[in-house]
Write a sequence for this structure.
């Protein structure tokens, strides 16, 4: 388990974006929280937005820690998102796809060794974000898992401008 936490910390260190971007979707970072289905868990994590790679397209790496349902999941996600512009609305809906690397640690019954596994899958993402009064962003999203990763995650979070 210590190797997985070290891997997650290294992943977070690599998420620091290059400076000098002045795009419509600014570089930012912040927490994300939510619930997952299959396994049924509480999910806590953090993410970054590495500005726009192209107009309205962002790279959003994140790390999530899921607890419950007799398993601990550490998910490293590399997401790309396309942000739509809607006239007369501060909300920016988005669609995305991401690669997810999930480290699973299963709780074993007494007398048995804990079991672990690593799975790779995809995430289809549907969400929306809106600026706050302090010029940060609030977002909410649904993540649909493809492969041997959680089937669904409903997440909310805050992004603080860098």
């Amino acid at each position: 388990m210590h190797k997985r936490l070290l891997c997650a910390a290294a992943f977070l260190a690599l998420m620091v974006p290059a400076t000098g971007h002045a795009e419509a979707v600014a570089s930012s970072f912040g927490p994300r929280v939510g619930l997952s289905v299959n396994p049924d868990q509480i999910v806590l994590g953090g993410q970054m937005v590495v500005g726009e790679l192209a107009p309205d397209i962002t790279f959003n790496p994140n790390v999530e820690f899921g607890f419950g349902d007799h398993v601990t999941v550490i998910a490293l996600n590399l997401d790309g998102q396309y942000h739509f512009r809607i006239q007369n609305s501060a909300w920016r809906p988005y669609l995305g796809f991401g690669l997810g690397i999930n480290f699973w640690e299963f709780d074993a019954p007494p007398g048995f060794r804990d079991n672990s596994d690593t799975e790779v899958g995809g995430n289809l993402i549907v969400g929306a974000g809106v600026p706050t009064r302090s010029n940060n962003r609030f977002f909410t999203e649904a993540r649909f898992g493809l492969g041997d990763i959680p089937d669904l995650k409903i997440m909310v979070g805050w992004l603080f401008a860098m």
Q: What stands out?
A: Residues 66 and 145 are 14 Å apart (CA to CA). Residues 2-14 form the longest helix (13 residues). Residues 9-23 have pLDDT under 50 and may be disordered. Residues 2-161 form a domain with the Porin fold (CATH 2.40.160.20).
